[in-house]
Amino acid sequence: MVAMQIAIDGPASAGKSTIAKILANQLGYIYVDTGAMYRVVTLAALRAQIDINDEDAVTQLLPTIQITFAPGEPVQRVYYNEQDVTEEIRSATVTKNVSAVSSYAAVREAMTNLQRLIAQDAGVVMDGRDIGTTVLPQAQVKIFLVASVHERALRRFKENQAKGSNETLAEIEQAVQHRDELDSNRAISPLRKADDAIKVDTTGMSIDAVVQKIKGIITNIA
Ligand code: CDP
Ligand code: CDP
């Protein structure tokens, strides 16, 4: 089978990274978590104590940010200027501010260029919001993963509880919904199903069932 580009987009906590990582491992492809990249830029801005709403200040920070990934279990490790920030980029503060930072043109351009560079000579499974529409419009496989807001919030709630967080289910549900709204309504490459993407509703589906379903789609296309 020729190495493919597989794009997995969808709203927060639809299971994109979980499914993308399993598929990449099984196919021997590179897994690219584009959300982690936007989270690193957000963390950099917060650490620099820049006003998140100051687009110029965030833009000026971009050349100072180097983002790298390294394999890791159970999650891929993410580095900001060679410092491991894997856990820090998932903090509630980064999560709260990431959609604003992701709406800026220069941020999107820098991240999109980096993502295309990584995808240029290897098979990739890339997950995000605009992979099928903007980053890899020629991807052979495009999946738009969704689930009900309640189920997505519940998944994130369980994950956070395991990490000792005390955010309530209602708070998470509201935050997930708010972020989806911001991501869907921004001017540049909003969260949207590409016309040629296949929508998979994972509400009530186990991780394994979703993986099997998408593998079936890939087999049909390859
Ligand atoms: O894992 P979760 O669904 O919480 O979010 P994520 O995939 O880590 O993405 C964090 C944020 O980055 C999203 O809410 C978007 O604002 C932004 N993002 C984006 O704009 N474009 C992408 N391709 C990926 C993420
Ligand atoms: O990357 P994204 O934000 O779309 O979601 P994720 O981080 O892959 O998944 C969010 C949580 O939902 C994780 O704790 C997964 O284990 C869980 N999950 C699930 O329970 N059932 C699925 N079918 C997919 C993910």
TrEMBL record:
Binding-site positions, ATP: G10, P11, A12, S13, A14, G15, K16, S17, T18
Gene3D superfamilies: P-loop containing nucleotide triphosphate hydrolases (3.40.50.300)
Domain (Cytidylate kinase) ranges: 6-218
GO cellular component assignments: cytosol
Record carries keyword Cell inner membrane: no
GO molecular function, one term: CMP kinase activity
BP-aspect Gene Ontology terms: nucleobase-containing small molecule interconversion; pyrimidine nucleotide metabolic process
Catalytic activities: dCMP + ATP = dCDP + ADP; CMP + ATP = CDP + ADP
EC number(s) from the headed UniProt entry: 2.7.4.25
Entry keywords, A to Z: ATP-binding, Cytoplasm, Kinase, Nucleotide-binding, Transferase
Subcellular location as annotated: Cytoplasm
Family matches, as NCBIfam families: cmk
Family statement: Belongs to the cytidylate kinase family. Type 1 subfamily.
Name recorded for this polypeptide: Cytidylate kinase
Lineage summary: Bacteria, Bacillati, Bacillota, Bacilli, Lactobacillales
Gene: cmk
